[in-house]
UniProtKB/TrEMBL annotation, chain A:
One of its GO terms (molecular function) is iron ion binding. Belongs to the NifU family. InterPro entries: ISCU (IPR011339), NIF_FeS_clus_asmbl_NifU_N (IPR002871). One of its GO terms (cellular component) is cytoplasm. NCBIfam families: iscU (TIGR01999). This is NIF system FeS cluster assembly NifU N-terminal domain-containing protein.
TrEMBL record, chain B:
GO terms for molecular function: ATPase activator activity; protein-folding chaperone binding. The keyword Chaperone applies. The gene is 100638811. This is J domain-containing protein. GO terms for biological process: [2Fe-2S] cluster assembly; protein complex oligomerization. SMART domains: DnaJ. InterPro entries: DnaJ_domain (IPR001623), HscB (IPR004640), HscB_C_sf (IPR036386), HscB_oligo_C (IPR009073), J_dom_sf (IPR036869). Residues 61-133 form the J domain. GO terms for cellular component: mitochondrion. It comes from Amphimedon queenslandica. Signal peptide: none annotated. Pfam families: DnaJ (PF00226), HSCB_C (PF07743).
Length: 164, 224
């Protein structure tokens, strides 16, 4: 293996840094690598914040775990998003892209994001399609969590009146 | 070589057309053409004729190849010695001077024996293989797990701790805790297979995969 690399090195050194990186990480599309190396919106929000919806999902076949959070303003618009993913490059890229896409969308618009769109944007191969599905599930879970919080918040005063 | 393979296929076909009994199957030796009856749940490697030529693999079930019962609890030392013994006997290098057909069969056996040992010697892979034998698989789209969100939160927290540049002592502590969780899952898995509870086994294996990933992550950071 090392001798193969020794023989390849002179050839590789003539290539630009960009195309060399593509050879060495053959298999991942450059968009995936970009998100992997410079992930957008990594981090977390306080999950108890009424404005925040949290989606926590896992893929039991590969052991990946993904957390996606959205922050929604009073008009139902997603103003910010964060994610934390422990898993393969495709899972990290899918969730990173998902946070970029949900930002600026309304809660209803965000439900329209499909895993196929994520997979297409990142040129994911068929064996990595489930990573984009995980990202879609994470968005849905975050939206559901936010809606549940909102619903219980709206029901609170009613319950108080009924309790009187 | 091609002619030999064709000959082998022809003989194989004549073998499978033999009368099938419940637990045995008849096949014809490619060399002496004698009819041999082989057990379905036990491997037959050679023809009992005077040349003891190698037969093509008669079973692809890993448990049968390593001659142990199809059950989760197996003795690691038993399959290890069985594996070494088989590889000493059937390794293709031993057949370098034999006919191409026999060498090909030795390669097929050797590769199957390797796969069988690699699969059965690991708790996780053995569990998955047993599910596979029962036509159950862990679906990539399947996001359900016994512990639900609470379990995922625990996994998330452990991963966050590992990635927060912990001290070596902290890493070792995380490693020990993870080993305890991993062993618990193995016990659950073993119980599920004893009760033939395949859904339970599936859920235990799903949990195990998260612990295995955590273990690899810790091992890549720990200095021994």
């Amino acid at each position: 293996m090392s001798s193969l690399f020794t023989r390849l090195r002179p050839t590789l050194s003539h290539l630009s840094r960009h195309s060399r990186a593509r050879i060495l990480v053959a298999g991942y599309h450059e968009k995936v690598i970009d998100h992997y190396e410079n992930p957008r919106n990594v981090g977390s929000f306080d999950k108890n914040d009424a404005q925040v919806g949290t989606g926590l999902v896992g893929a039991p076949a590969c052991g990946d775990v993904m957390k996606l959070q959205i922050k929604v303003d009073d008009d139902g618009k997603i103003i910010d998003a964060r994610f934390k993913t422990f898993g393969c490059g495709s899972a990290i890229a899918s969730s990173s892209l998902a946070t970029e896409w949900v930002k600026g969308k309304s809660v209803n618009e965000a439900t329209q994001i499909k895993n196929t769109d994520i997979a297409k944007e990142l040129s994911l191969p068929p064996v990595k399609l489930h990573c984009s599905m995980l990202a879609e599930d994470a968005i849905k879970a975050a939206l559901k969590d936010y809606q549940l919080k909102r619903k219980s918040k709206m029901e609170e005063p009613v319950a108080a009146v009924a309790g009187e | 070589m091609a002619a030999f393979r064709k000959l082998g296929e022809k003989l194989l076909l004549s073998g499978t057309s033999g009368r099938r009994l419940l637990s045995t199957r008849q096949l014809n030796c490619w060399n002496c053409n004698k009819t041999i009856s082989v057990q379905l749940d036990e491997p037959t490697f050679t023809c009992p004729c005077e040349h003891h030529v190698i037969l093509p693999p008669t079973t692809s079930n890993y448990f049968h190849i390593l001659q142990c019962d199809v059950q989760f609890d197996i003795k690691p030392e038993v399959i290890k010695s069985r594996y070494h013994w088989l590889q000493r006997w059937l390794h293709p290098d031993k057949y370098a001077l034999k006919s191409p057909l026999e060498r090909q069969f030795a390669e097929e056996h050797s590769s199957l024996i390797n796969k069988a040992y690699n699969t059965l010697s690991d708790h996780y892979r053995r569990g998955l293989y047993m599910l596979e034998l029962n036509n159950v698989e862990i679906d990539e789209k399947d996001n359900l797990i016994a512990g639900g969100e609470e379990f995922l939160e625990t996994i998330m927290n452990i991963n966050e701790e590992i990635h927060a540049n912990p001290s070596q002592a902290k890493l070792k502590q995380l490693m020990n805790n993870n080993e305890v969780s991993l062993n618990k899952s193995i016990t659950v898995l073993s119980d599920c297979f004893k009760k033939n509870d395949l859904e339970g086994a599936k859920s235990a294996l799903s949990e195990m995969k998260y612990y295995i990933n955590i273990k690899e992550e810790i091992l890549s950071r720990i200095q021994i």
